[in-house]
Every structure is written in C-alpha cells, then in structure tokens.
C-alpha cells in the first residue's frame, strides 16, 4: 500500500500541486484584466484587435495599419486565435492564453527537473520563473512573447534527455509562434555540439544530433521565408531601416517611439538584465554559503547564456550592415529584425541561465543545510544578519537624508531612463526589492536552527527537514510575488466613447490624437487613421505613410480653418474626428507634451503664438457624442464649415 502511494506521489501529485500554485500566481498577476474588460496589456491593442475579422467579416478593409500587423504576425500564433474564435472572442482568449502556457511551462520544467535526477529542481525552476514579475510579464496579454518560455521548457527537456528529433521539431515549431525565441533555441542547439573539459572546448559530434540541428536550420529558414518573403511579402511596407538610417531618425532616440540609439553595449545591458533583487541576492548567498563546486550550472544554461550574448551582438550587426538583395541575406535580416531590440535575446538567455543555476543551487543548499552542523548555521546566520542590518541602515539613511547617491552609484550598470527622476524611481524600486529579499533570506537561518535542533532531538528526520526548507522557499517566493508581482496594465477610461464608435458604419475611418485612438480598433472594431502603438518606424515604406498621416493630422487638429480640416479629411478618407477639448487648453499647450519626437517639436512650433483653433469652438448641435472632454464630430462640409463658437 505504501509503495503504491509513493508511486502516486512521484507521479501525478507533484504536477497537480505545483500547477495549482502557478495558477494562483498567474491569476493574481492577471487579476486587473480579469476584473475589467477595458484593462489590457498595451501591446494587445496592436496585435489582437484585427482578429475580430474572424467572427465579423468586412472589418478593417484596405487598412494600412492592419496590413502591417498581419505581415508581422507569426502564422502559428494567428492559427491558434483563429481556432479559438469559434468558441470565444479573441480578447477573451488572450486572457486565457497566459494560464494555458504557464501550465505547459510548469509541466515541462518539472519534467526537466526530474530528468536531472531531482523533481525538487524542477519545483524550484517553476517557482523562480513565476515569482518574478518580469517573467510573468512575458505571459501577459497572450501575445507572441507568451510562447517563449513554454518552447524553452519543451526544448530544454528534450535536449537534456538527448531526444534530438523532438528537440529539432520543437525548434522548428517555435518559428510559427515566436521567431526571436527560435533564434535563441537554434543557436543553443548548435552550441550543444561543444563539450567543455574544464575551460577547454571540444566538439561532441553525434550524427543524430548534427542531423537534427541541420534539418532544424533548414525548416526554420523555410518557415520564416514562407512567412515573411514568399509569396506574400507586402512590398508597399518597404524595407527594414538599417542603423545608419536609425541614427538620423529622432524616432529611435530618447523621447522617440523606440529608444534604440545609441545601441546598447553588452556589459551594461547584462547589468540591467541582472537587476532583480530576489534572484541576485539569492545567487550571492548561495555562492557564499555552499561548499566549493557543489553547484554546477547545467550545461543547457551555458548554451542559452552564450546564445543570448551571440544574438545580442549579431542582431546589431544585421541591423547595421546587411543590406543585400540576395534572398539569403534578406531572410537573415528579417529573422534578426523580427526582434529589433537585441537586449531581448540577452534577457531570455540570462533568464534561462539563472533559472537553471538557481534551481540547482536551491536544491543543493537544502541538501547541504539539512546535514549542516549548528556551528555552520550560526556563522551563516550572523553573516546574513550583518548584511541585513547594513542594508536596512543604508536604506533608512537614504530615505531620511538622501546622502547616498544611488543614481550616480549604479547608473552605469543600472537603468538608463529618459530622465534622472525616472532613473531614481527605478533604482528605489529595485532597492526595496533587495531589502525584502534580504529580510526573507535572513529569517531562513533562524528557522533552520530550530529545525536542526528538532532533528537532533529525533523529532524530525532529514527528509522532513528538506520538506520544511522547500516550504520556506515556497513561502518566501510567494510572499515576494504578492508584494512585488504587479504589472501596470493599461486601463482605458473612455468606455462610452468606444461603445459609441462601435455603432458607426464598418467602413468608417476615424482620426484623433494617436494615443487616444490606441484602443479604438480593439474595443470599437473600427479603422483608425493612425495610432501611437502602431507608429512603428522599422519599415521605411510603412512608416513613411504613417509619418505623413501624423503630420497632416496635427496640421488639421490645430488649424484655425475648417476648410483645411475638410481638405485633410477628404485626402485621407476620414469620416469622423475624435477631439479632446483639453488639447486646446492654455495649460496643456504650455506644458508642451504633445506626442513623441519628432512630432512633439513639430506641434510646439505649430501652436506657438496661436490660440485660435477651429476644433476648439465646434457648436454643440454638431457633436454626435460627448464624454467628459472628448467629443466626436463628422468630418463633412456641414460640420467643418461652421465657425460659430459654442
């Protein structure tokens, strides 16, 4: 009977228990989106909205922004949402996807731990993944990036079991869902051919592995070629801008749409990606208290770390230099530029490295501490107490006197925000994380001391002590997540506006401030002239049109002439205008925060010395809908020829 019970525990129960914990962590993180239909991850507005076509035909016809979004969507990602659309709306499914993919990741990481000889290692892998809000953010919104960790987990499991065919299939399949993750997996797969004896590398050739890697490369190339080059590449979107072009564009600098210039350097960027209190402090403590060489990073962790570093540099090279009509180079450029931010490769590579290392270290520390002598534990307790007291003292000193210049101290390897204030807020938040992590870990030796005393009195055995240690780690991680595991989802406030716009004809084209119009395609299912989320400057043909639309919109928005606005509407086919009265107030104009660069400077020059704006004096009887300071009017001659003030 006992044997059967033990087999059951080693079988399904660990997966069930850990899955319940993960479900609760993801639920807690996603709760704002589950409570409010109008609260979403910001990227949802640009990736999910057009999928309303699956259930309602005729939406977003001849829409430039939708053409761009459809072009960049991985086909497998689209197929999943298309199948789900027979049951639920895409936006509802997007809120379900994080739970499904989190459970897939949990299952394979637990199996990975078991393949390494310890289910406990898998348990720590899962816990470390889901207590960190940066990792949870990857799952948020049900977007492409949500598929990254599930595919990493599946690949790592098959690679660790030397099931190279399945690892190759996983690599190829990931290209249908998240191509940047595919790049990381593919390079890690190739690096697995290298074997290290100390620091000396050598090739570990296996015909089966080489064949799997070669076939994976071919399949990935064919998949990406079919998705982005042949036969449906939209030439109207143009080519991807290179680094020289980026350097001339304000859109890629601080204050622009994407801060990519100057391009990040490896070591400062590694420092930024390592700024996580719980993981980094845990890493330091494990290194300090564990016997030498007891913790060895699994070789798969090194493959991913090196893969992240290689792709971090390669992405910059592709962006800067590859500009060839040769189809191979063009495909390679598309492959690299699908994730035009090189730091994301590094982020995922470091994440997998730390997850594997810390999970192994946590398991090893439990093994060591469960056998530790009281004297060892006393020394560890005192060391941690000193660290905690010093940290609290530094924290209180900073809070009360501001004598510690944290911004200057860590700016080089920490954040590099657009303003010193933003930098300082970021550092304060990270320092608070360190403080809590140290507090949680400083409690651990005291609890262990009590547990060891009980063990010596034969009230608890070594196995029971390991369970207690794992429970403490779980409780610490859970507490960390409850305190810090928060994402600032965007809650869009103008619900009445979105509901009204949804009643307009399907072929309507709406124009308004791009930031206000961001959620309109998602919630109103209507075309928009330009949105901030979809003002991506990566492809010259597409962005050239978006830039022209944006400039002409601001010309019309702040025009004193109704005829000029009418000309703008006829030129672009705009049927309705969404106007915010606050945008014409003296306070708003004086503040000068209109939009990202270069448009902000353009609008500042546009409104300088001008206080007569046609849209600021629309008669009440011409307004179709009004909510707070926002109203909607027709972009027709009857409305725009009226000059009477309200």
Descriptive report:
The longest helix is centred in the C-terminal third of the chain and has 37 residues, at 420-456. The chain has three domains: 2-35 and 73-228 and 263-370 and 470-484, no CATH class; 375-460; 491-640, Rossmann fold. The protein contains 30 helices and nine strands. Helix 21 (420-456) runs antiparallel to helix 22. It has helices at 2-11, 13-35, 44-47, 64-72, 75-84, 90-115, 119-130, 133-139, 148-160, 164-174, 179-191, 207-228, 243-247, 266-273, 277-289, 299-321, 327-337, 343-370, 374-401, 406-410, 420-456, 462-484, 495-501, 514-517, 520-524, 540-557, 562-572, 586-591, 599-607, 637-640, and strands spanning 39-40, 194-197, 200-203, 490-491, 509-512, 527-528, 576-580, 623-627, 630-634. A five-stranded mixed β-sheet has the order 6-5-7-9-8. It has a two-stranded antiparallel sheet with strand order 1-4. A hairpin with a 2-residue loop joins strand 2 (194-197) and strand 3 (200-203). With 646 residues, the chain is mostly helical.
Given as residue ranges, the uncertain stretches (5+ residues, pLDDT < 50) are 1-9, 320-339, 409-418
Question: Percentage of helical residues?
Answer: 55-70%
Oligomer: single chain
Strand content: 5-15%
End-to-end CA span: 85 Å
The domain tally reads 3
Counting helices, strands and paired strands, the structural category is: mainly alpha
- The largest sheet has its strands arranged as 6-5-7-9-8
Shape: globular
* Mean of residue pLDDT values: 80
Q: If you compute it from the alpha carbons, what radius of gyration comes out, rounded to the nearest whole angstrom?
A: 28 Å
The major beta sheet can be summarized as: 5 strands, mixed
Number of strands: 9
Distinct helical segment count: 30
């Amino acid at each position: 009977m006992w044997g059967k019970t033990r087999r059951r525990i080693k079988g399904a129960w660990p997966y069930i228990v850990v899955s319940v914990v993960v479900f609760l962590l993801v639920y807690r993180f996603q709760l704002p989106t589950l409570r409010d239909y109008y609260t979403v991850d910001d990227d949802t507005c640009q990736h999910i909205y057009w999928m309303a076509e699956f259930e309602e035909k005729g939406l977003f016809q001849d829409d430039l922004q939708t053409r761009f979004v459809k072009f960049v969507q991985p086909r497998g990602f689209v197929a999943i949402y298309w199948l789900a659309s027979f049951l639920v709306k895409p936006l509802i499914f997007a809120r379900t996807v994080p739970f499904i993919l989190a459970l897939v990741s949990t299952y394979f990481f637990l199996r990975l731990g078991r393949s390494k000889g310890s289910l406990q290692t898998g348990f720590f892998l899962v816990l470390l993944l889901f207590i960190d809000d940066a990792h949870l953010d990857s799952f948020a919104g049900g977007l492409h990036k949500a598929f990254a960790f599930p595919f990493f987990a599946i690949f790592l499991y098959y690679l660790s079991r030397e099931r190279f065919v399945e690892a190759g299939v996983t690599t190829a399949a990931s290209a249908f869902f998240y191509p940047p993750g595919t790049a990381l997996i593919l390079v890690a797969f190739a690096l697995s051919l290298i074997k290290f004896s100390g620091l000396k590398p050598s090739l570990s050739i296996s015909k089966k592995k080489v064949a799997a890697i070669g076939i994976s490369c071919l399949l990935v190339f064919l998949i990406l070629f079919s998705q982005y080059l042949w036969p449906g590449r939209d030439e109207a979107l143009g080519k991807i801008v290179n680094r020289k072009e980026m350097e001339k564009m304000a859109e890629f600098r601080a204050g622009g749409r994407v801060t990519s210039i100057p391009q990040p350097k490896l070591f400062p960027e590694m420092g930024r990606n390592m700024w996580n209190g719980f993981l980094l402090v845990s890493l330091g403590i494990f290194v300090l208290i564990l016997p030498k060489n007891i913790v060895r990073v699994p070789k798969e962790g090194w493959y991913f770390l090196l893969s992240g570093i290689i792709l971090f540099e390669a992405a910059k090279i592709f962006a800067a230099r590859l500009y060839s009509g040769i189809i191979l180079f063009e495909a390679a450029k598309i492959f690299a530029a699908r994730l035009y931010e090189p730091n994301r490769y590094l982020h995922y590579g470091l994440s997998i490295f730390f997850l594997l290392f810390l999970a192994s270290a946590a398991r090893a520390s439990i093994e060591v501490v469960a056998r530790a002598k009281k004297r060892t534990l006393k020394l560890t307790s005192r060391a941690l107490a000193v660290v905690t007291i010093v940290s609290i003292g530094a924290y209180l000193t900073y809070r009360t006197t501001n004598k510690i210049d944290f911004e200057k101290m860590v700016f080089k390897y920490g954040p590099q925000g657009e303003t010193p204030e933003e930098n300082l807020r970021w550092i304060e938040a990270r320092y608070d994380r360190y403080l809590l992590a140290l507090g949680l870990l400083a409690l651990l030796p005291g609890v262990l001391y009590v547990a060891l005393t009980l063990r010596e009195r034969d009230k608890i055995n070594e196995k029971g002590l390991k369970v207690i240690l794992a429970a403490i780690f779980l409780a610490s991680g859970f507490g960390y997540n409850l305190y810090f595991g928060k994402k600032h989802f965007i809650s869009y406030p103008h619900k009445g506006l979105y509901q009204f716009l949804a009643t307009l004809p399907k072929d309507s084209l709406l124009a308004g401030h791009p930031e206000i119009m961001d959620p309109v395609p998602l919630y109103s299912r209507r075309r928009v002239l330009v949105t901030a989320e979809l003002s991506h400057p990566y492809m010259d043909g597409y962005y050239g049109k978006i830039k022209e639309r944006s400039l002409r919109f601001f010309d019309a928005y702040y025009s004193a002439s109704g005829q000029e606005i009418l000309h703008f509407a006829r030129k672009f086919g705009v049927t309705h205008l969404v106007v915010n009265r606050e945008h014409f107030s003296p306070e708003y104009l004086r503040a000068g925060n209109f939009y990202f660069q270069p448009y902000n400077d353009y609008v500042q020059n546009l409104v300088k010395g001008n206080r007569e704006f046609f849209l600021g004096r629309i008669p009440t009887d011409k307004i179709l809908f009004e909510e707070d300071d926002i109203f909607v009017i027709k972009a027709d001659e009857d409305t725009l020829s009226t000059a009477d003030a309200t």
